[in-house]
Amino acid sequence: MVDDIAPPGPSITLGALAMAMAATAMTEFASAKEGSAVIMATSADDNHPVEHILDGLEETFWATTGLYPQVFILAFPRAVSLSTIRTLTRNVRKLLVERTEESMPMKFEKVFEVELSDRSNRLQAEVQQVNNTKAHFLRITIKSGWDDFCTVHRLSCEGWPSS
């Protein structure tokens, strides 16, 4: 009989399973819709403003205006616990990501530093697992580039609200 091979213990309905999965689903925090904002950037270009980093569109971007390092600071509306950080860039060579849990963007600690491959002016996609990194602010530093100018098309920060 089929009943004889059913595992012992309480059964779970599909509805309960869906609710449990939704409760653990990650949130995209690097988004104006979520209340995040880039509060500082070392260069400005009216045609390619820093706000483009958070608009979710691959075809828009923030363009640096030459010289390195270039820096921008992302503010989350509340402390978050990050699992994954993704960047979509062009001509970035060395990238440093730092975080702070402080209420003001000071006293940053390194999350990761990476050297990206030269893609000959094509888009560079980078994914870093950061395993429950708590942050209220992220400081992203482009330490060097493969060209005089580089672009940041997208920043994605997935995780959960910090408890």
TrEMBL record:
Give the GO terms filed under biological process for this record. Answer: intraciliary transport
Q: From what superkingdom does this record's organism come?
A: Eukaryota
Cellular component aspect of the GO annotation? cilium; intraciliary transport particle B
Q: Which PANTHER family match?
A: INTRAFLAGELLAR TRANSPORT PROTEIN 25 HOMOLOG (PTHR33906)
Record-given protein name: Uncharacterized protein
